[in-house]
Amino acid sequence: MERWTDLVERHDPAGVLDRLDGRPAHEIADALARMEPVDAGWVFRLLDKDRALDVFEELDPVDQQELLAGLRDDAVTALVEDMDPDDRARMLGEAPAKVATRMLAGLSASERETTAALLGYPDGSVGRVMTPETVAVPLHSSVTEALAVVRRKGARAETVYTLTVTDAGRRVIGTVSLRDLVLARPDDAVEILERADTEDTARQSGATPWSGHYMYVRVTKLARTRAVWLAVLLLAAVLTVNVLQIFEDALEQVTALALFIPLLVGTGGNAGAQSASAAVRAIAVGEVRLADLPAVVWRELRVGLLLGTLLGALGLLVASLLVGVQVAVVVAVTLVAICGWAATVGATMPLLARRVGIDPAVVSAPLVTTLVDATGLLIYFSVARLVLGL
């Protein structure tokens, strides 16, 4: 998709449509989001009505607003009318009040009523972005019962590929895929939901997924699920010990440096974990690909440096009161560097893991934190040598 820029710049409709032929809607939407608004609007108008709607619903509300600004009023009304209610409510919820009111007024009575109901939920709530055209499966339904619900209500739903799971009060507590239901034995549907959630939680915490009731599973089994990753993390933590040995003379000369080691490694680990979590989420929803690695590195580096500057200013003030200006400067400079480095590492590792076929969640918080601990100390003592002349 990146190689079609020249076609857009030349305004070659046939070439652009040929390049878009067979591309899924989310790829086209991703490409439009990366363009200048004028170019994106020109490409969007080349799409036929049905495909344009699919692409439009894949865009973020901000990008949707930019596209709508370049369309005629009648085209805007038709496009908004044909959107799914939840996508329409999401867009209108982030549009300026006057724009949202005008768009709502142009809708048919039924679509306006449905959209208004969704907009009645608090901003940021699940209700605001849910679709009313869905199939809801009661929590304790068996697979057989859940499939019967799909057959009964599926024709009126926006999608039957992902089903909502609700409790006795009709509150949504999760989702289950139709594929999992079809392939599962006729046990409780909630077991499928729990199994998927258990696996994700285990991997993100640095453990092997396990099955069974927590209170009754053998202690040895629980230990085995955690032992491998703890051993890996322990070996990685040896790097921290080696760094401390290398800079042992610096610690002997300026013992005050030791006071800030927990603060620095903790901050670096937290910054890396935040970045890794954001990257894993972006990978899961298709917002970033391996080809975006340079852009992701540049983005997270800037975010990390900005955060480091803010924390560094605070650290300079606090450390100056405790140990003097020179060591405080070392701490402040290190915070800037370590936050930039940690954010970059945290965003990079999940992408590289995805490239070699490893679940990105596996290399998220625990491994990133351990790696940043060791490298953060290396940065700390290197800065100390430069500033203090050790």
Strand content: under 5%
Largest sheet: 3 strands, mixed
Total domain modules = 3
Number of helices, counting only DSSP H or I runs of 4 residues or more: 20
Specify Rg, calculated over alpha carbons. Answer: 26 Å
So what's the CATH class of the largest domain? Mainly Alpha
Mean pLDDT: 78
Please list the strands of the largest sheet in the order they lie side by side: 1-2-3
Derived structural class:
mainly alpha
Question: From the 3D coordinates, which CATH architecture of the largest domain would you assign?
Answer: Orthogonal Bundle
Through-space gap between termini: 53 Å
Order of helices and strands: HHHHHHHHHHHEHEEHHHHHHHH
Rough shape?
globular
- The count of strands amounts to 3
Helix content percent band = 55-70%
- Give the low-confidence spans: none
Overview of this structure, please?
By secondary structure, the protein is mostly helical. It has 20 helices and three strands. A three-stranded mixed β-sheet has the order 1-2-3. The protein has helices spanning 5-9, 13-20, 25-33, 37-46, 49-58, 61-69, 73-82, 85-93, 97-105, 109-119, 126-129, 143-153, 178-183, 189-204, 219-246, 248-253, 261-284, 293-323, 325-355, 365-388; strands spanning 136-138, 162-166, 172-177. The longest helix has 31 residues, at 293-323. The protein is 69% helix and 4% strand.
